[in-house]
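USER: Fancy drafting a protein?

ASSISTANT:
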Amino acid sequence: MEVTSAVHLHSVGFLHLQTHVERLNGRAFFLSTRPRKVKVHLPCHHHHHLNHLSNTNGIGACSDRTSVILNSTSVTSTTSSAAGSLSEVEKIKQKCLTWQWKGQYSINYFVSSDSPQQLHGSHPPLLLVHGFGASIPHWRRNISTLAQNYTVYAIDLLGFGASDKPPGFQYTMETWAQLILDFLNEVVQKPTVLIGNSVGSLACVIAASDSSQTLVRGIVLLNCAGGMNNKAIVDDWRIKLLLPLLWLIDFLLKQKGIASAIFGRVKQRENLRNVLSSVYGNKESVDEELVEIIREPANAPGALDAFVSIVTGPPGPNPVLLMPKISLPVLLLWGDNDPFTPIDGPVGKYFSSLPSQKENVKLFLLEGVGHCPHDDRPDLVHEKLLPWLASISNSE
């Protein structure tokens, strides 16, 4: 989940303060994560042919810099059991590839299509962008459904999942937005619908608002974040009153020992389960697989530094200032039981006002759903998303 999720600071007693701040700000912070991986280098074609090729193992063609990223457990499973016995997460990991961004950063991504004909059809491809602390497998309950009619891409943003976490890198929302645009230009190479959750939504908004872009066909925002962290500027006197406390937390997180202790506590299984349960409306969706999706990569080198940089960095552009620039079709899917970006909070109120102001914007509230609708209640998301995508395709 990119979910921009809350830094629930269990170890130093900041939990209740953070929850209060997040409710006001419409924000949540999740862990930066990265799974262990084994790189298996295969003979490759140039990467722009990837969306025209696939093989019986579901591993697409790749560029001379591309290697298939396989989770170490998935490699063992593939050699010893039929593909049908693999979980959705394992299947997703098997099909992941790498792309070199700016010639120096390894970016993990996924592409799926059930039939080669789809690659040449009239339907636009889709790019799924996770939230803070999440990664590609967080779309485990959506990819197979979407791939029935669309070519589906998903990406691990820099600092998350199996993508690089460069030492000393200063993360910004603008960096992630540029990553998305470069990915569309170099890999997908077709007008694409961007689908994002939380901070991933905000990155999609920034990308779509770039006046020079030509490859964004539309955007779907799942509980869009107001900024990269709790310092996002919103018109709420309570947030401004609490800013000194947020600055104090930033100061503490910049102390290596304190940050390490906090991060160690946050990524413990039981603490993660508690955080996820507070984020999800449907508690049955908070299973062991979800906990591992968030937890396992958090032990990778660079995960702590990414966590600190994102939490303490600048909040980035305000979506309130960006949305008026976007004339593309926009679908808003909002869980009404989200404690971090509540529909009645400053960010939620703004987005809920848009359909009456802009004809290109549609909004659906999802009853009993939390901050991550796509994994919380995928059935409700697909019920609204699929007809909207069909309307986009038919309008071309």
Observations:
- The two ends are 31 Å apart (CA to CA).
- The chain has one domain: 88-391.
- Residues 1-83 have pLDDT under 50 and may be disordered.
